[in-house]
Amino acid sequence: MSFVFSEEEELFRRQVQEFAQKELAPGAKERAKKTEVDMKIVKQMADLGLLAMNVPEKYGGQTVSWVTVGIAIEELAKADFTVSVLPIGSCGFLGQVLSYAPEYLQDRWFKPLVQGDILACLCLTEPDCGSDAVAIKTRAVKDGDSYIINGEKTSISWGMQAKIGIMFAKTDPAAGARGVSAFLLPTDTPGLTKSSIPDMGWPSAQRASFFFDDVRIPADHLLGAEGQGFYLAMDVIGVVRVALTLQAIGQAEGALAEAISYAKQRTAFGRPLANFQAISFNIAEQATKLEASRLLCYRALGLKDKGERNLKEASMAKWYGARAAMEACHEALLIHGQIGFSEECPAEQRLRNVIGSEIGDGTAEIMKLNIAREIIGKEFQPM
Ligand SMILES: Cc1cc2nc3c(=O)[nH]c(=O)nc-3n(C[C@H](O)[C@H](O)[C@H](O)COP(=O)(O)OP(=O)(O)OC[C@H]3O[C@@H](n4cnc5c(N)ncnc54)[C@H](O)[C@@H]3O)c2cc1C
């Protein structure tokens, strides 16, 4: 078992780091105020192949390990939170799930995604249910060669900007998880209206609600078979939620680096803050928790690379890592004193971002349910 990156992975990490620090870090603070992703940045990421990982080769993609995808996201997130997760958007949910679409739809949508011309989104959560995803109420009813969709989705990251989405709806409401189907949804389909959600973090991901009023989509936009949607989602969730955690960890590592640099130059009581044991021990503790979180994440991705089940490990990584990232950003802010509480200092934005990571793609409680079920047994499922 190796606890260090291979030479090839380390080289890739340095390349992404160089790009992120040179191209993303300088404008990240300004971009964080915007409610739209800057597509010029997305294009730059695409030119480096960062949106093509694990996308089929015929669309310009290449097969890489999930550990490699994680490395990219962690390094990007140290510099710019919101765009850092786009690689998992193209290669995770979309790359894997879109592969179930007919060839002509893959041709239509994969290329612009991989080339950084458009964004995509995921529409699962509804106003009445998030954690209990099987309880969704949005209906898809077959009508000739179409499905008619009615209902409401919410909390859709990039919802206002995305040109396509992967949308989940019930095709058989009585069948529980087996009644959930996945659809490819062009977001300009007539009958679909949107509204934006003003958020405390992730600003340029601009979450949205989608309202479906007799939205008709062609029947061949069904991904996989009817009733397979939930299982398609579960198949990739083990990498997607770890990637989101590495995004939060990368963001917190950036916060800690800024706090260290501040603690070295800011003086109080005649000496640099870094000379106070209370400050240096705090930094040491946060760095240790972040390192432990990274190891959990890369282990979960490593298991996925070996084709092994990783529900327990991915869930451990998600709750512990997102929490550690939030604590590290909070402590980094406090080390900055009063400046930390102002918009002058990046720590406040970093903290607001990683709080979102604690909720998105599964809360701590739901992750603990998964862990308990895996290690104690399904028959002792906590209520
Ligand atoms: C920044 C951000 C981005 C997001 N992006 C997307 C997106 O792109 N697409 C999308 O579809 N969704 C997205 N989401 C939604 C997200 O996945 C859900 O918010 C999440 O799954 C929780 O669902 P909920 O908000 O409905 O909370 P609820 O399920 O209502 O839970 C509320 C609280 O109760 C707790 N709880 C629920 N059930 C149990 C239980 N059985 N035992 C103990 N405690 C429980 C939860 O842990 C939580 O603390 C995003 C959310 C955020 C914050």
In short:
The chain is α+β, with helices and mostly antiparallel strands and 383 residues long.
Would you kindly provide a written description of the structure presented here, covering whatever features stand out?
This protein folds into three domains: 7-118, Butyryl-Coa Dehydrogenase, subunit A, domain 1 (Orthogonal Bundle), CATH 1.10.540; 121-226, Beta Barrel (Butyryl-CoA Dehydrogenase, subunit A, domain 2); 230-380, Butyryl-CoA Dehydrogenase, subunit A, domain 3 (Up-down Bundle). Helix content is 51%, strand content 15%. It has helices at 7-31, 39-47, 66-79, 81-84, 86-98, 103-114, 229-265, 277-305, 311-335, 347-359, 364-376, and strands spanning 120-123, 139-143, 146-156, 164-170, 180-186, 192-196, 208-218, 222-223, 267-268, 271-272. The strands form three sheets. The protein has a four-stranded mixed beta sheet. Strands 2-3-7-6 form a four-stranded antiparallel beta sheet, with no helix packed on it. The longest helix is centred in the middle third of the chain and has 37 residues, at 229-265. The protein is globular, with a radius of gyration of 21 Å. The mean pLDDT is 94. Residues 121-125, 129-131, 155-157, 202, 207, 356, 359-363, 365-366 line the site of flavin-adenine dinucleotide (FAD).
Beta strand count: 10
CATH class of the largest domain: Mainly Alpha
The small molecules bound here are: flavin-adenine dinucleotide
Name given to the CATH homologous superfamily of the largest domain: Butyryl-CoA Dehydrogenase, subunit A, domain 3
Q: β content, as a range?
A: 5-15%
CATH topology of the largest domain: Butyryl-CoA Dehydrogenase, subunit A, domain 3
End-to-end Cα distance: 36 Å
Order of helices and strands: HHHHHHEEEEEEEEHEEHHHH
Query: What is the radius of gyration?
Result: 21 Å
The helix content is: 40-55%
List the domain count as a whole number: 3
- Class of secondary structure makeup: alpha+beta
Give the strand order, joined by hyphens, for the main sheet. Answer: 1-4-5-8
Task: Profile the largest sheet.
Answer: 4 strands, mixed
Low-pLDDT stretches = none
C-alpha geometry: globular
